[in-house]
Amino acid sequence: MTLSRFTISGTIKDAKTGEELIGATVFLKDTAGIGTTTNAYGFYSLTIPTPKHEIAVKYVGYDDFTITLDSLKNQTINVSLLPSSKNLKEVEIKAKKSNENITTAQVSAIKLDVKQLEKIPVLFGEKDLLKTIQLLPGVQPASEGNSGFYVRGSSNDQNLILLDEAPVYSASHLLGFFSVFNNDAIKDAVLYKGNMPAEYGGRLASVLDIKMKEGNSKEYVIGGGIGLISSRLNIEGPIVQDKGSFIVTARRTYADLFLKLSKKEQLKKSILYFYDINAKANYRIGKRDRIFLSGYFGQDKFGFQDRFSIIYGNATATLRWNHIFSDKLFSNTSFIFNDFNYTIGITVASIDVKSVIRDFSLKEDLDYYLNSHNKLKFGFLSTFHTIVPGQVISQDTSRIGNIFLTKNYGWENAVYAQHEVSLWNKVNINYGVRLSIFSQVGPSKYFKFPNEETIDTFNLKLGQFNKTYFNAEPRVSISYNFYPNMSFKTAYSRNVQNLHQLSTTTTSFPTDRWVMTTNNVKPQIADQVSAGYFVNFHKDMFQVSVEGYYKWMQNQIDYKNGATLRANETVENQLLFGVGRAYGAEFFFKKATGKFTGWVSYTFSRSERKFPTVNRETWFPSRYDRTHDLSIVLMYDITPRINVSATWVYYTGIASTFPSGKYFLNGQIVPYYGDRNQDRFPAYHRLDIGATFVLKKRKTWEHDLNISVYNLYARKNAYSIDFKTDDNGNTTYAEKSYLFRIVPSITYNFKFSISPAKRKAK
Amino acid sequence: MRMQNMIRTILMVFVASMVSTSCTEKINLKLKNSTPLLTIEGNLSDRSGPYYVILSKSRLYYENNSFTGLPSAQVVISDDAGNNDTLTEVVAGLYSTNFIQGTFGRTYHLKVTAEGKTYESYCKMPTPVDIDSIDITTETDFKGNVKKRANILVRDPAGVPNQYRVTSLLNDTASTGFHIHIDRLWDGKLRSFNVPQSDFKTGDTLKIDLQSIDEHVYTYFSEFNQNQNNFGAPAAPANPDAVFTPAALGYFSAHSIKSKTIVIP
What is the ipTM of this complex? Predict the structure, then answer.
């Protein structure tokens, strides 16, 4: 039977590795405007309203593919694309459609090119996703060499970082110098800078959605690297060829081995390392079902002599089930577990401080492909949060008692629906709403503070709820394509956050306490409007964009002067609640293709806060305020086997509070501080360079050498500024501490594959 | 151990292991200028007097450190037992009590009238707590040097909030800084406090004072200390909340003292 209107659906994959391709386009040849893109699992569905036989499949870095239909009926068509032959020698797979930046309604989002970031030079040669996104407009590093980042004038804890849908509460190793994400395990990453689709929620400023590789389903591949501070090993391959695959990646640092070489006895006795393991497996059960199991486990260990130790780490696990109900309805169900915990052992005091934050979630997402112009997405997320604040466990209760702070439980629910519609081939609209519900639940306690001195304690029994907050989060983004290479986009969204991190230091620390929304701590709310203009030139070789945003924030959290945040049952009365506003303009110029690639990113922005008792309740610059932020990234392929790269970054120094005078007390000279954040650190700038030499590249094995130099001109960027009195006591002065001058590093990478049987791509 | 110090140690060990280039350098930083403010430092104890109140004015940060005392102020200390002592100016800015005797349990009132303004603060002198014993230990520091340190053991009275300040006198040199402790987490326990000074030699005479201080004074010292170590210190350093009305810098502490002296073996 021949239908006049029929639907084709299926999966688009890489012919060599069997990895699903996210965001590949499938469209009707010779008929403008009938097309779709693959979802996060490589699935597509396209309803064809006219009797046409020729369907094109496109993905940058791959050869185009044309499907010729035998019959005009509903059918499943899976396609494997071959990496482009012209690039075969030096494959640079762009995880991106060449003009996606123009055509989608999504504004304020960046899809990261995971392959490309291997070329960008970084500190100690550790390729790092979180450091690369800091080179993009609107994203700033938390501090020198730090993987923590601030998006559009918001704090680090206002970023939601998802690893295969599991939230990662502490995304850095070793005080922030390295991210927990091993580049070898990452397939795809997208950063939404506030205007996220309704399917995401829970944090104010951004979502970084990281997807792990599925593993090669055709052949076994073993890869790894030996670097200055760590070594990596990964293995991937089919479980049953073309039906299931697995990948395991592992990494461990050995900075502590250098400590053993130290002449200083104290360093020799110190421990300092981290490791992490990513593992994932998937299996296809029949044509309609697929199961994924993925997990991450990482830990940092630090011990200084026998004085104290800190051990902390994340664990996440995600079990996913893809089910294709019909050629139009795709479902994904996920069970998610994540845990972050730390133990601080203070030997001299014979105590351990332990803390845990743990979530169990059930998530359901449904993609419904109504027709070629309309797509619906809806689902829910239900999460049970447990926060165990720092418990003090004493080995000698005669000296110090155990302190068991009340555990807090929270139940967070969200339902969402969104509609993606394209009109007249020119306008794309994505609108939706997310309804989030949060309650603290028993067995626990809650507190009321009728005045400064009084604390009223209330018990919450099992099954009892403290105050429940309902928040509707409307989201809309619209793009208008004037021409195929030019568009104007605008968006509005409201985001709500119910878990809050209390950070008392300039650099956030993994042991900073998390608190949840209660009767005292209200949900943080942000409203953001964005608008941008996007143009591509010269067959998408050049991409230019200008974006502006304004963000209002409510129920922002700070703490009172002299606040006690640790081992304190009633931490909530140590907090201050205020408002925030942030605005800025982001300029981005990118050369996407050719031998010479790279980008220039410039952001002008402001981020301010207002709190009742700070600076007499006037607006002041937040810690995340950087007026100017410029990044230049250049990459050049000298030959197919040698490429060089350079990055230069410049940003305004962070807002800080410096002395405006000094006084004499207790025989000491004491700085007298002015109003909060009215001063600035000196501007930061740094040049890094790198080069990769492919030593050998064969079909079955390859290896390369990467050399990089961090901070080439050895600028002494201020990490902290102290105010000191000189040795003879006559004068006071300012002194900066800087961490790194020039840091060269070298990394060796290898990869070889064992093919069980040769297969040709379809 | 404070979190900031742990962070500093981890950074030091990490940087030492990797690059050994971490350094400090004097910089020219543009700073704002505040108007000079009155600083009051008043101490009174249950030891015999006289007790002293020191008055001075704050200076701009880049001015030299020649702080001069504020002369010609009227300084009065009184207590809830009806004693009222107007202090005598010994040298410019240094004011001495004449007869008042500190007694624990009494509330003291300091009143300073200077440059046309009157500043006031109240403080209750807590009950003293004994030093149980002194413990001399040998420790190796980060740089690998072996040093003799001292700890005092203190039996914290149960059921009442206690705040302590430890000071020491090594031969003729007094300790500096506010070394304070609060029993919030160890009420009624036997505690060990570090003695501020260290690196003793055999034959040194070490005198240790354990002050029992008022809660508000503890809070002032604690806020004061939070701002003293800028490395990984509070994101927003601020001056401690004033203990004087109207606001003036400094503190007024009425404390009781117990002492112990040891000759280093």
Answer: 0.89
